[in-house]
Amino acid sequence: MILERAIFAVKPGSEPEFEAAMEQAKKVIAQSGGFRSFRLQRGIEQPSTYLLLIEWDSVEDHMQGFRESDLFVRWRELIGSYFAAPPEVEHYEAPVVTK
To answer: How far is CA 47 from CA 4, 11, 63, in A?
Structure first.
């Protein structure tokens, strides 16, 4: 399992519309193979900034399975117009901890 971390800076004043669009976008991404979970958080100090955490089975499920699909096109149609800047996206995996 991997964790995708995306930071979205949205146009100030568009936060309610972005959040409504993200509700629809969540339904779209949930249809993608390898999708596990979705969590969106709004910034306190910077309320036009959002943190999105998505769990995937693999990086490939996100980068090829989703990003190269029609689902991604629909996702961006729903939320892309609210972006003030391109999203920052990174992937994380749990480290192997030994005793």
So the answer is: 21, 10, 28
